[in-house]
TrEMBL record:
Protein name stated in the entry: Choloylglycine hydrolase
InterPro entries for this protein: CBAH/NAAA_C (IPR029132), Ntn_hydrolases_N (IPR029055), Peptidase_C59 (IPR052193)
Top-level taxon of the source organism: Bacteria
Molecular function in Gene Ontology: hydrolase activity
Every Choloylglycine hydrolase/NAAA C-terminal domain range: 2-184
Cross-referenced Gene3D superfamilies: Penicillin V Acylase, Chain A
Record's keyword annotation contains Phosphoprotein: no
Keyword set, alphabetical order: Hydrolase
Family: Belongs to the peptidase C59 family.
Length: 185
């Protein structure tokens, strides 16, 4: 089971860490993507570009890199974790929105937002679409954790037509179940 956690070192530095346990080899490699890296959405073939450089764990599938976890040059970090039987995506694309499959969201999020505050202001422009055109050939059921250099940590989960962003007050997230379960004792 994948597990992520946010913590603070003795010197005050903030970190987001994770384990990756998957049923098959993803061939993930250290991956660097420069500012203005252009990528093509698997969903609708639109071209996007990152505003910020990214380093993380990635694998190339077709035209694109799938970033499973990483951080940008300003310290916004993120990870995608498996959310089986719980991820609910938009049935149809939304005009005027950034329509992506779930595996593309982390690349967009850390590539185009400097901080949690930026992400809070911008994530509503993105819709995750239920599609068989995923980066890996099928759309993966995912939820996400983000943290920045201030230590602010948030969870983002897809619930139908909405992406729900909430503060992570426990500093831990695993695969399924949803974040509300993580808050129970």
């Amino acid at each position: 089971m994948c597990t992520s956690l946010s913590y603070q070192a003795l010197d005050g530095s903030k970190f987001l860490a994770r384990t990756m346990d998957f049923a098959f080899e993803l061939n993930g490699r250290p991956t660097f993507l420069p500012r203005e890296y252009q990528w093509v959405s698997s969903f609708d073939e639109k071209t996007y570009a990152t505003d910020y450089a990214i380093i993380g764990t990635g694998a190339k599938f077709g035209k694109n890199y799938m970033i499973a976890d990483g951080f940008n040059e300003y310290g916004l970090s993120g990870a995608e974790l498996y959310f089986s039987h719980a991820a609910e995506y938009d049935a149809e694309p939304t005009d005027g929105a950034i329509n992506l499959v779930a595996e593309e969201f982390l690349l967009w999020a850390i590539g185009n937002n400097k901080s949690i505050e930026d992400l809070k202001n911008n994530f509503k422009n993105v819709h995750l679409i239920d599609s068989d055109r995923g980066v890996m050939g099928v759309n993966q059921p995912l939820h996400f954790i983000f943290s920045d250099s201030t230590g602010a940590t948030y969870i983002l989960e897809p619930e139908g037509n909405d992406l729900i962003l909430q503060e992570d007050k426990v500093g831990v997230m695993t695969n399924t179940p949803d974040y509300n379960w993580h808050k129970t004792t």
